[in-house]
Hints:
binds magnesium ion, 2 domains, seven-stranded mixed β-sheet, Aldehyde Dehydrogenase, Chain A, domain 2, binds NADP nicotinamide-adenine-dinucleotide phosphate, six-stranded mixed β-sheet, 15 helices, alpha/beta, about 40% helix, Aldehyde Dehydrogenase, Chain A, domain 1
Amino acid sequence: MISELNGKLFIGGSWKVGAGGRVPVENPATGEVIGEIAASTGEEVNAAVAAARRAFRGWADLPGRARSAALKRLGGLISADADRMARIMTMEQGKPLNEARGEILKLAEACHFYAEEAVRVHGEIVPNDTTDHESLVIREPIGVVAAITPWNYPAELVGWKLCASLAAGCTIVIKPADLTPFTALAIAQKVDEAKIPAGVVNVVTGPGSVVGQALVEHPGVDKIAFTGSSSVGLHIQRSCTSVKRMSLELGGNCPIIVTQSANLDAAVKGTARRSFRNMGQICIAINRAYVARPILDEFVAKLAVAAEALTIGNGLDRPDADLGAMASAAPLAKTREHLADALAKGARLVTGGSAPEGDEFARGHFFRPTIVTGCTHEMKVMSEETFGPLIGVMPFDRLDEAITLANDTPYGLASYVYAKDLDEVRYLTTRLDYGNVAVNNVDAGVMNAPYGGRKQSGVGYEHGREGMLEYMNFKHIRVRHDLPQGS
Ligand code: NAP
Ligand code: MG
């Protein structure tokens, strides 16, 4: 399954064995090497960009309906192969198989969503100050896109960029994370089967600092679509050698506010899901909870019960486990560091705090869902993105205090509110300085509506119609109309 993708690159519609060195890829649940990818060379990056450039005009000039049909074929092939693709993802990422399968199916949905958008690219006619002029505002695809993606959602974070680019009429070169490259190569297999024209989609692999950087600096790339950490996002913005369109979906440090009017059980259930799912390796994971003081103890006690009820396992052997391994040693080490920092500064450990016991967990990057209370903003757990299964809790007395604490961060990706009182809901949602606010639910991002961050969480949007417009330029055509001769 993976061996056929070993060392391969997808450039200009054909599979090539990469000429550069090899980078091993591990199963984070066992430490086993499952395959190796090619570190793409400069020539291979150039070849991929050149293939995308050559394919661009033909793809952009197709009627929207033809691009739509291609995306529908792609979505159909992906959902038909969901089991195999999910196994590849679990092997390299660690999430339980059922969850990986769900992510593949959501990628297929993204194909269908953007297939529908592709036939609704229309412009506007804008009135002028004089009646003899008319302004037509049309939309045109930007050109060649470089997509650079992280390892936490290896299918969806590639897919949103791929589907929106293709719908808009752009062509794309994808550089997936070196921890989870095989899911992207498996998507390229489906692109190939879907008979999407050669060069419209290309995948190169290798270290971000070399291969990703080469794409960022490449004069043939018109737009960078990046998802990853705020530090790498800022570095990319600074290291561009020419002006380029850019969307940056970066880190988060997401708060939840639970008021006294909330349905407490629903708030606990939502918090447990959004703090610990995917082992907390979600940019919109709940990192920190602010709970109305009178309900704090009950909230913490119930959240501990919910956390302890989550099952953990090797995602291949236990497809229905709630949680699998973390994707690598680095996010686990950061989780431990944030926990130690909180405890050293006076927080109290409520549950978790160590790896689960047993042979099954001996060689993988496992950790138990962890809750600390008595937190302050001096602690990293409250002020930095952990990207692991750790949540800090603190009480608040007044709504304004909760808002100040929630907004006290350089990030602005997602925030959560549980409250039944409509006045409270309006007060909080209008004051939270975040691109996404989920109220009485924890799914801050859905395919139908724009999803993006503020402040150090990024610029631009994915999802929704706005997600496709990120891949388009506006063109203003101003026409002067004379009265016809003899009218
Ligand atoms: P990362 O270290 O920033 O890496 C992201 C991607 O950038 C990887 O493909 C990486 O390649 C590549 N890269 C690294 N250095 C580069 C450079 N100099 N030039 C071009 N590309 C470069 O992030 P990560 O650790 O993989 O992912 C976790 C982060 O992503 C978290 O901060 C999380 O919040 C964020 N995230 C944000 C969203 C969102 O929608 N806002 C969604 C998911 C994740 P290599 O893997 O080869 O190093
Ligand atoms: Mg990294």
